[in-house]
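Reopening this one. Same input as before:
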Amino acid sequence: MKKLILSTAALALTAGIAAADVVRMGTEGAYAPWNFVNDAGEIDGFERELGDELCKRAELQCEWVKNDWDSIIPNLVSGNYDTIIAGMSITDERDEVIDFTQPYTPPDPSAYVALSADVDVEGGVIAAQAATIQASFIAEQGWTLIEFATPEETVAAVRNGEADAVLADKSFLDTVAGMDGLVMLERMESIGGGVGMGLRESDGELRAKFDAAIQSMKDDGTLNALIAKWEVASQW
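Same output, byte for byte:
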């Protein structure tokens, strides 16, 4: 699914959770339907429901921490929380800095939203959230890229004419397509390698617990049921 990081391994500390009473679950809280803040001010969405179930199955006490996307990996490494569960695609670059569980969703298609179905994405200005797999893809194609800190800003750039289209996970763009004249283009991109939980490289025991919990949800069908409920990706 989304997101490529520009972080550095220089931040790699040895902060562990062995003595911790609570596992802190870091998320962005700004990428519906994966994760968002609801009207009650609480973290909600597919990953909130998934994370709570994983903690239950792993017999862990967990709490949720909201963190901006651009610092989400550095703040994991420095010990501000113990996991990332934020629609993060597993990539080789990220895997050099942190570890990942097995994926809990297959790759989500990346799609374009624009104000016209006739937009030439290869010759236009394409908006993407900074440090995402979509931003990296556009740059690798040599197209004109404009980056923003949040998903909402990428969509706003299309609405106000600053960009011709936005490239993001289709599940996110499904929440905005059809609003204010925004249309989904037929063209899709297949990028990313599935979405997993990020953990510090020193936390192998915690990773193993979450791996086992994810696998148990795959085995009994509850993970596919959650994916279908929130319409975040294709099923396993």
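So the earlier flakiness isn't reproducible anymore. For the record, Residues 115 and 181 are 6 Å apart (CA to CA).
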